[in-house]
Design goal:
Distance between the termini: 50 Å
Structural class: mainly alpha
Oligomer: single chain
Largest sheet: 3 strands, antiparallel
Helix content: 40-55%
Strand content: under 5%
């Protein structure tokens, strides 16, 4: 019997073309395939009837229609960056408007405060470390490495501009992660608003300080991790590596290097991915500690952690309770010089007053060279201070906890104003003693080649050259738009309630909220509270609070790829189904059992049904007019030529791949 007269195939040779992304499978005589990769877990196969040759015997056509009149398939469209960007902006127009608006105050800040904001002596330590590349004994030098990369440009303006762009990037990552978790555009934009518009966030970006770079790496690590529901091995390692890089810039994020693998294990993505995240996160830390050991003889990140923790204990320590050994008696609060020797903890000064007073025990017998405020930070002093601090915390754990708790609520009880842009230019006459001023000017000249016109404006708190009109505009702005402390507290409580209520709870929200609390509490527990340590936690807490309001549409979630390829709001129907391009061939999934030998030739062309998830979740597989799979124990039913047949495409054996 001729092939075109087999049962189930019309005598005129009409066949059904089935495209599955791997190649043509046909019933009867057919030419060509057309398939489309569907959105979701599997593939949605589109089927087109092929009417064979046209009346002239060439080409494909329809009965009574020449090949020339037959509509030809569209040529694949080329990728145009401008068109893609335009489409992206059109789909996310609300956030795009907010992003453009957030550029304005940053431009005003750059015009009004030149070349950037210089913060106490910390800025000059980082600049000195970039020029004379070596690990600093007080703060890790990860930020100095960043400045060293930009050293050939000799421009602090460039450093500030890059940091402002990174700040906008942080807001974009907040928005992108929340849209992935089906937050509406307005909700995701609102969550990103503090990063976009808060004047203290803009101040952090304009400071030549490590905080913004560490914040960008930390938020970037979470974005890489959370933008796929089940991150791949490479994504897990990348997230860990970024968090490790953030650690050598701001060591307070070190616990998050360990928290990421724990999160991956809880999500049951596999021990390989958790191990990759841990190894990648630890690698920068071990590398930096090895560098520090080679330079200073101790395998550590700094020689300051013990001294900082000792200064923290001065808020509550009572040596009559601690009973330190004789070699530690000089570290008691009452043994400190002058006004620092207060028996009542309520009357004592801030921890930093103890740490930086050059008359305390740590500075005795030291001499300040060109680099000031570093002579006390030796390995011996650091270990001695750490011993006292551990004894104090063990003897008075309740007092230690109460001290931390009292300062932890500070940013929620009132609105902080310590990081506001000044209107009056600073004065170098306040930067005493004289060697501090020489050091500050010398580091700026070493990095940029000149003093940048700020020799007269290097105050004890800020240093910058103020331009009057932009400074006035920025001053008005920061009195109108800011993040009130009680509102910030409400954001924290919203995130907490969201992870307590079972119907609102999600593991990403738990990870973000816990991480934010850690990076807020740890600096306070180690030294003292300052709002500069709180700002990096703001985007994490905003994301955690927003996730409490995410959509709980299970049906929509089932139609979204586990990898999160479909972002809420970007409807898959925006691309016409008729413009499908041939998809990349993939290996078909193994069937549950081999099909029985067919009794007719037509049945041999129909594949056995597979248990792939693509068959059960694909809309096309459930709504097709005629089934394309024949029973394994019987002949295939004839297929009418005018009725489209649908067959679910094979799925990848390993499931959806997440980049």
């Amino acid at each position: 019997m001729p092939s075109w007269q087999r049962p189930g195939v019309p005598e005129d040779g009409t066949g059904i073309v089935v495209g599955d992304g791997a190649g043509p499978r046909v019933g009867g005589r057919c030419t060509g395939i057309q398939a489309e990769r569907g959105e979701g877990d599997g593939r949605v196969t589109t089927v087109r009837e092929d009417f064979g040759q046209g009346p002239d015997g060439v080409g494909e056509g329809r009965p009574g229609q020449s090949a020339a009149e037959t509509p030809q398939p569209r040529a694949p469209r080329r990728w145009h960056p401008l068109a893609s960007l335009t489409g992206l902006v059109r789909r996310h127009w609300l956030f795009s408007l907010a992003l453009v608006a957030a550029v304005a105050p940053r431009v005003v800040a750059m015009l009004g405060y030149r070349p950037a904001m210089l913060f106490r002596l910390d800025t000059f330590d980082y600049l000195w470390g970039a020029v004379h590349l070596s690990p600093n004994v007080i703060n890790p030098s990860g930020y100095s490495l960043f400045l060293w990369l930009l050293l050939p440009f000799h421009s602090l303006v460039l450093v500030a501009a890059i940091q402002h762009l990174l700040g906008l990037g942080v807001a974009t990552m907040v928005y992108g992660v929340l849209r992935h978790y089906r937050l509406p555009a307005w909700g995701a934009t609102l969550a990103a608003a503090p990063v976009l518009f808060d004047p203290e966030q803009i101040m952090i970006e304009h400071l030549i300080m490590a905080d913004l770079l560490a914040m960008a790496l930390m938020v970037g690590s979470f974005a890489v991790l959370l933008f796929r529901d089940s991150p791949s091995l490479s994504r897990s390692a990348t997230a860990g590596l970024m968090m490790g890089a953030a650690t050598i810039i701001r060591p307070t994020v070190l616990p998050l290097v360990l928290l990421i693998p724990v999160y991956l294990l809880i999500r049951r993505v596999g021990w390989r991915r958790a191990g990759a995240a841990l190894a990648a996160g630890v690698l920068p830390v071990l590398g930096y500690m090895s560098w520090f050991a080679a330079a200073h003889g101790t395998f550590n990140m700094t020689n300051s952690n013990g001294l900082f923790l000792w200064s923290r204990t001065m808020s509550f320590a009572n040596c009559s309770v601690i009973k330190p050994p004789p070699d530690l008696q000089a570290l008691c609060p009452t043994a400190q010089p002058g006004a620092l020797a207060k028996a009542d903890p309520a009357l004592r000064r801030q921890p930093k007053r103890y740490l930086w007073n050059h008359r305390i025990w740590a500075w005795q017998g030291t001499h300040s060279g060109f680099v000031p405020d570093s002579a006390a930070f030796t390995q011996a002093n650091n270990e001695r201070a750490l011993r006292f601090a551990i004894l104090a915390i063990k003897a008075q754990p309740v007092a230690y906890g109460q001290t931390i708790a009292a300062e932890f609520v500070t940013p929620f009880a009132h609105t902080d104003t310590t990081l506001r842009f000044p209107v009056v230019p600073p004065s170098s006459s306040t930067l005493t003693p004289a060697y501090n001023l020489r050091y500050a000017i010398g580091t700026i000249k070493a990095y940029t080649g000149s003093d940048q016109g700020v020799s007269r404006y290097l105050g004890i708190h800020f240093g910058t050259r103020v331009v009057h009109l932009p400074a006035v505009i920025m001053n008005e702005y920061q009195h109108i738009l800011f993040l009130p402390g009680p509102v910030f507290g409400l954001v924290v409580l919203t995130g907490l309630v969201g992870i307590i209520i079972p119907s609102r709870r999600s593991w990403p929200a738990i990870l973000l909220w816990v991480s934010a609390i850690i990076i807020m509490v740890l600096p306070t527990a180690e030294h003292e509270y300052t709002y500069r340590y709180v700002i990096p936690a703001v985007p994490l807490l905003c994301m955690a609070a927003a996730l409490a309001f995410r959509q709980q549409d299970r049906k929509a979630a089932a139609g979204t790829a586990p990898g999160g390829a479909l972002v809420a709001g970007d409807a898959p129907s925006s691309a016409p189904a008729a413009s499908a391009a041939p998809s990349t061939a993939t290996a078909p999934a193994a069937p549950t059992a081999p099909a029985a030998a067919p009794t007719t030739p037509a049945a041999s062309t129909a594949p056995a049904a597979s248990t792939s998830s693509a068959v059960s979740t694909s809309p096309a597989a459930s709504t097709g007019a005629a089934a394309s799979t024949a029973p394994a124990d019987g002949p295939a039913a004839p297929v009418a030529p005018a009725e489209p047949a649908v067959e679910a495409g094979p799925a990848d054996e390993a499931g959806p791949q997440n980049a």
